[in-house]
Design goal:
The chain contains 9 helices and 7 strands. It has helices spanning 20-25, 41-45, 61-73, 77-82, 100-113, 130-144, 156-159, 179-185, 188-202, and strands at residues 9-10, 13-14, 27-30, 118-122, 148-152, 165-169, 172-177.
Length: 203
Amino acid sequence: YDPSEGEVLLDGIPLRRLDPRPLRSAIGTVPQDSFLFSETLLENIGLGIQEDAEPRAPLTGEGRSRVEEAARVAQLHDTVMEFPRGYETFLGERGINLSGGQKQRAALARALARDPSILILDDALSAVDTHTEARILADLRTVLAGRTSFIISHRVSAVMNADQILVLEDGEIVERGTHEELLALEATYANLLRRQMLEEELE
């Protein structure tokens, strides 16, 4: 959709001037509600890697390596290797045989395996426990270097290392800055962080 006001630029070029097809192929998206297909884990994570390959061609060699590396970053690889059939495990409809956190990690691995220039994480770790989230975020710091990333989250821990943090309240941007700058304001962001730290202590 075109914005109702102003314009969105990519490398200084308005999006409406760009060809949508290559633009979309450069974007990796991980929605909060992850959608998985009734295929193997390998095919689900590798979706989009072999766009020019023959339909149903097996994912081997470099493609499979990319899938496994992406799964490691998403903290899913070790879990997959515990399954009797590993990456050949067939998923039920919408990935019903995986937990909510495993589905989100599979969707994250799928986006990372495509190696997109732009990555959008829309509350992509909401179903993941805080310890697993911390490991994913630590590995993501290396992966996110050199690419444009949008991280949408209710958890401060997921965004605190971002170059720029926008705090939204009732659909409006109420604060903007780095983690340190927002803490210094002693307002919405700082209060949210204190509340989340208290909740973690109580857990």
